[in-house]
């Protein structure tokens, strides 16, 4: 459903993302790995529209979305999380999620209705919070959350938007070992239903191996390989450039 | 031809005055991240300091070395006030941008009122050497010496600030401090000193602008600083916040546009053009001409 | 052996929240002491309190000593100049400055910065000297943040989750670096990656809900399945890989 | 109480006469205001022969600072009127006078405008008078500098805005009407660099340059006109401002022909002696305050508490003021008064003005306008 | 680099339901305050030193009316600044458009008041929408400066007195002959007071409703992270434009009332200082809080008006010259008050209530464990 064709982003002479061809099938979970600075986050930025590609096309369900601003792409069903948590720091955790739910329900321009009175939004938001295990932090200001909690809130924001294609940028970074299985379960549950596709960057290999159907490897902006986990892990270049010796 | 040269040179004189005001503003604004509405006060202190010294300080006077001494006193006074303001008022408020606005607005109101309470609302004649009242014939144009003095001073100030930013570590410390003060301290640097220094330099530049502005206008009055400030702000923004070179370019553009449009167009059009220029530059290049923050 | 750092009865309140409640532990003069605990227990808060970086709204009580010297009430920059290196959790590189400028800023007066050591560890930093740090990838920023403290000689390093967001290969490299660093300088490390902990840590301090739940030998902790389960909430299976 | 209560002016014969003075004590025009109030107090002494009373009734002054802001002046006026004040005087700034005048008419109280020079106060309404001169009288005085204007070329150099407009219009009417060709060079009030304008003036080669410029940039403007040789090449006329400003003309001061509303020594009247005795050196706006006090006393004497009677008593009244013979023209309440030509002499900070000529109130009379309200 | 951060984090109260002992009464407190303010003119209490005359005297009512208007203006400005994080330096333009628009239509064109008011508010809103559409292409300090530039053009146009419409620096007195009799004359000041109160109520109500609405939630999000809003699927530009237009419309409505109260327009109100004072009012009160901006606006205007009297009072005159000279400068006192306010009431007046509550709580004896 999501496809990139020769997607390239150059700054000056340097290609940060270099002619990437990717296809994401409905219901598929595609892991993205690669050394630091390979261009994974940049690829996400191109797909979600925070950066404009210098060459190449991006299509969603066959429609070319390369020229749309971020919010239009989001409305078409693209959702993402950020590598560095970006939540609404001066709003409460619950308000954060409600805002996301509201955005998903069509971005009401109502000026006169009471937002708090919308039970459906509230219920959907609470459900999302429950799912990531943040329900007890609902009234805390998002800005004062500890790092790991912010990661969870990021995912709750994403869930609230019920996107069809989800881009997760290192969701496990900084999450305490105890909570990783829980979060993995949450992410796993996302894909099971309704043909939702996921693109996830992650450096925790065990998580990637547990979740991904296929793994794409990026290196110096280019797609080095895109194949089943077994094949990718066996690839000597990947071993050498990315995994190194295990601890 | 004579007219064009006259307009160009007087325009540059005006530009030099704008630059002197804007350079300090730009440093404080771009480097210390303080939107300093009290900059006009430093200007006023510099002007009144010079004026007072010429009349009261032994050895100082309106002429020759005495005048240099008077200006030096004015600049010192402005610098001192700037340092005090930073130490007492701004220091507790870093990273609280909005409260800084409140304090600097309050300071500009109170400061100007204080000058007025002390020396009255009326303009006072400004002590200055006689040659600054004369003109120099350049290619058939009678160019006022006061304007030429401003141009020379502006070039010197530009050079000095650039040297400071390039050759000392302070430029770096300040730029980093704007982004994240805490982390600069966590690298073992006393960031507060650097910020005080920026204020001192900004204050000195403003005070010099005040003193030379006094020469140029021939008078000193409490509100003078604030009325120059709006154009200085425009120059800073067009030039790109924190870029001293950008401010210099912008000052030249603003000065010349004002001068030529006022002559060839109808009156008042010059101001509107400058304001229009600001809007256009920002819409096309929100980061200003120089476009990079805090570069030399 | 005299501990290099001793924290006694440390309490931190931030805007009414009691985040740390009477935390006491010591850091051994050699090797890595690791600070463990779930998200939000106050690990970062502890490190920042040691450095005097608690937000103005906060209130710190207790004693923190390095040798005979009391650290509380000293300004941060003086502590750092006295040999306390800090690698913050969110990297906090100066996004507007270039990599080279970031490093130059970290030089301390009166010492000769060990650039060769840093560039040998992270050649990337040498190559990208002129790039704005803000446009570095997450991992590259992490390298810069670590490289920055290694420029100088320190008496103690406070390192907050240095491997977060790093590729497995780099994680291994960073672990090696820290291992080598720890040979000469003691390190107080906050880390979630238990594999890294296993490799580096000599002593461990486990926080839970703002209090110290366990201190002792790190390997002992990781070997005792029941202990890890109850303190860190993970089974030994997870610890292993 | 009721929200529409206002105190009524005590009708009994011993109650004091309440007079409200709303003028600038602070702000940019504070020094004008200071002269005004000094003049007023001296005038009150003079007109009541030192008793401060009209008949048995004491004149009770309430001074309010408007800081040059019309909104504050309006608030102050409403407050005074609400407390039963029937006479309000003051208004240092034109903007203030223009906005207080309608308040006076709406509430039927007497308003005597002060130094505000705008022509628009004249004929504003039945309840509004003025105690100072108006721009038109300045221009008529300027005309006296060029003898026969027919065929002469006159340039007006003025600020953008209403003040400049009024001056330009007045010059066109007065001097242009007498046969001169009048053109104008206008500059923004905020201008700090005057070379383009000086060049334009010089190119025009006028026989007479009339300059209407107020504000702190005036010295820079004069210096530029001097440097570009304008002052040397033609007769330049402008209004003589307060004494404090004289040194700021610098070398240009002695090259300019001044029209003057008043300066110390311009007249030698009883009133001027009395004024000088209290203030030592008379300045530009002392006479306005003095005249205002004389008018207040007259109104209180003749009108009691009846404002309409006060108006009648003032309309057409002639009196001996500081400047000489003053007449309130009944039709539009213009204050006909002598005006002066002056020269400055001296250098440094010591300048003196000497009168060249004085014009009578009739000679400088503005054309009558219809009463607007 | 962010030159202008979002104002200090304040959760809009509208979005977080209050708890506590008072939470049942709280919703009615504003209503009580409104009733008290509405019947205030029937009281003859004198507050010596605070007001010149009794509360129901025209002078007092006039000052109160002006204070209320600025309370409303500040609340409207806060919709931009405190709640959306947009720092506009040109908000005075829309207020001035209201003042001059009404004045010109009534005085020069002779329209009846209601028509003039309607036209003006519509025009002011459209003006805000148009200029906002352009200015919002920039963000941060650039946005502030573009709005400042627009306002500056407005100020120049007013000062130049194009077509003799504005009266230039002398201003334009309002022609009251066609106005309803109830709005003219000192005895009717009370009606103007009620009008101002109505305006304030309207603005507070609108701002409150909007902040608590779904759109308000988006505005609060915009203040924190605009990029994030985009990625959630909302167009930041549209929402900011809505806020800008609404605030502009409210400001021009304020202008309509103000011109009636003051009885004319003067160029003071087009100056950039006025925008700056709006900012000061909001910060003084507490940005993003429900009552802070209102209190800030009222306090600012009260001081601005009353300090002139303070400066000339006997108490000040009797002080030695070093003190009495500066103190007789109203702006000196005003400026000093701002500076002190920052250090003594951080977070603005609105931050005072929780601090007092905290204080009383900590003073109460705690049960021993
Ligand atoms: N604006 C920019 N200007 C210059 N270089 C840039 C810019 N943005 C990104 N880069 C460079 O592009 C490369 C790819 O960065 P990106 O953030 O996409 O990496 P990544 O794969 O997400 O790495 P990580 O796993 O460390 O997060 C990096 O080398 C980075 O320095
Ligand atoms: N400035 C602050 N204001 C209010 N609460 C804060 C503040 N800083 C931290 N906290 C709270 O203190 C608690 C501890 O935070 P801290 O960052 O120290 O946790 P941590 O152990 O480092 O967690 P993580 O593993 O997620 O990094 C958290 O609940 C957090 O919400
Ligand atoms: Mg990345
Ligand atoms: Mg942490």
Account of the protein in words:
The complex is a heteropentamer of chains A (247), B (296), C (241), D (373) and E (369). Chain A is of the alpha/beta class and 247 residues long. Chain A is built from 9 helices and 10 strands. In chain A, the strands form 2 sheets. In chain A, strands 6-7-8-3-9-10 form a 6-stranded mixed β-sheet, sandwiched between helices. The model of chain A has no long low-confidence stretch (mean pLDDT 84). With 373 residues, chain D is of the alpha/beta class. The two termini of chain D are 33 Å apart. A two-stranded antiparallel ribbon of chain E has the order 1-2. Chain E has helices at 29-39, 58-84, 92-108, 113-135, 140-160, 189-212, 214-224, 226-231, 236-262, 272-285, 292-311, 314-317, 321-327, 330-344, 352-363, and strands at residues 172-173, 264-265. In chain E, α3 (92-108) packs across α9 (236-262). Chain E is globular, with a radius of gyration of 21 Å. Chain A binds chain C through residues 33-41, 83-84, 144-149, 170, 173-179, 181, 203, 205-206, 241-247, and chain C through 14, 37-41, 44, 89-90, 124, 136-140, 142-143, 161, 164-173, 175, 192-196, 198-199, 232-234, 238, 241. Bound molecules: adenosine-5'-triphosphate (2 copies) and magnesium ion (2 copies). The site of one magnesium ion has 4 residues of chain A, from α1.
Outline of the structure:
The complex is a heteropentamer of chains A (about 250), B (about 300), C (about 240), D (about 375) and E (about 375). Chain B is mainly alpha-helical and about 300 residues long. Helix content of chain B is about 75%, strand content about 5%.
Labels describing this entry:
heteropentamer; C: 241 residues; alpha/beta; Rossmann fold; four-stranded antiparallel β-sheet; 11 helices; 27% strand; globular; disordered C terminus; D: 373 residues; seven-stranded mixed β-sheet; 16 strands; binds adenosine-5'-triphosphate; binds magnesium ion
Number of domains of chain B: 1
**What is the 3D shape of chain B?**
globular
* Largest β sheet strand count, sense and barrel closure of chain B: 2 strands, antiparallel
Helix run count of chain B: 11
Q: What is the total tally of β strands of chain B?
A: 4
**What is the distance, rounded to the nearest whole angstrom, between the alpha carbons of the first and last residues of chain D?**
33 Å
Q: What is the helix/strand order of chain D?
A: EHEEHEHEEHEHEHEHHEEHHHEEEEE
The ligands bound in this entry are: adenosine-5'-triphosphate, magnesium ion
SSE order of chain B, as H and E? Answer: HHHHEEEHHHHEHHH
The total beta strand count of chain D reads 16
Please give the oligomerization state of what you see.
heteropentamer
What would the average pLDDT of chain B be, to the nearest integer? 83
In round numbers, the mean pLDDT of chain D is: 87
Largest interface, with Cβ-Cβ < 8 Å? Answer: D-E, 47 and 55 residues
Helical fraction of chain D? 25-40%
Q: Could you name the CATH class of chain B? A: Mainly Alpha
How much strand content do the residues of chain D show?
15-25%
What can be said about the biggest beta sheet of chain D? 7 strands, mixed
Pfam families (chain A): ABC_tran (PF00005), BCA_ABC_TP_C (PF12399)
GO molecular function (chain A): ATP binding; ATP hydrolysis activity
Protein name (chain A): Branched-chain amino acid transport system ATP-binding protein
Domain ABC transporter (chain A): 2-245
